[in-house]
Amino acid sequence: MAHNPITVELIRTLDAIDRHGSFAAAAEHLHKVPSALTYTLQKCERDLEIKLFDRSGHRAEWTEAARHILSEGRRILVAMENLGHSAQRLAQGWTTQYVVALDHLLDFEQIVPLLTRAHEDIPWVPVHVRQGTLSGTWELLLEHEADLVVAPLHSKPDAGNIETRPIGTIRMVLAVARDHPLAAVDRPLTEDDLLPYPVVTNQDTARQITPLTAGLRQRRQQLLVPDMSTKILAQKRGLGIGFLPMHRIQQEVLGGDLILKSLASNDQEREMTLVAGWRQGDSDKTHHWMLEHLELLSIN
């Protein structure tokens, strides 16, 4: 079909007739004479060989085809309006969307205050959230799949085009289930104590850059799970041991479902510096707004 008879004028005509109840009222709303609306409708009917209105009775009745065009057409009208607004925002220095990548140590609840304020202050910019693990979180930034990263500094790759800002710390603790054999050991644990038990692990999600390992290393047995929530549940059920972020297991610890343990060695990391990271040179208004509101992240 060289010429598409479904025009914006047709959709607006059908929309006005539906909203105002008659051809005459729709014509007045559109500042046109009724004959102009009739011509628009009849042209579409001729071109598509369909009927938009059944005129066999005393009053013209909508056909199924007309209702279908109106329903789909209204979506087009909304999309066109949004397209115009987004073009204006781009010209003003805003972006069409913004993606925040959270490391697996963090819980979605921690970013809710920032998302809430963004929805209030810059509702025209959709803010999306993605999650990664270890180097994989930073890879989202390097591959332009995210605009801002919130992750531990130690997992940051050696890339010169990333800027960071410290925003808090995360305390990592060794935790076992209440009925795990290690829970009853009343002293700091040694490597020999840990060796018989599987370590619950979140695998690095990096695809291009070198993946990292964290927590208890060089264990003979591992249980790989997809995310931190699953890791917490697996350790709570006694399926293995491992380090967990304290801020995410406070209720389990208070309720006695998880028991905190210490190590005899001092070579394990206890606190991690958490940073926000972004690509050097990013200077759009959305990015500046995000950096100005980083304090809304509920970190410590």
UniProtKB/TrEMBL annotation:
Keywords: DNA-binding, Transcription, Transcription regulation. InterPro entries: LysR_HTH_N, LysR_subst-bd, WH-like_DNA-bd_sf, WH_DNA-bd_sf. The keyword Signal does not apply. One of its GO terms (molecular function) is transcription cis-regulatory region binding. Belongs to the LysR transcriptional regulatory family. It holds the Pfam family HTH_1. Residues 6-63 form the HTH lysR-type domain. This is LysR family transcriptional regulator. It comes from the Bacteria. It comes from Natronospirillum operosum.
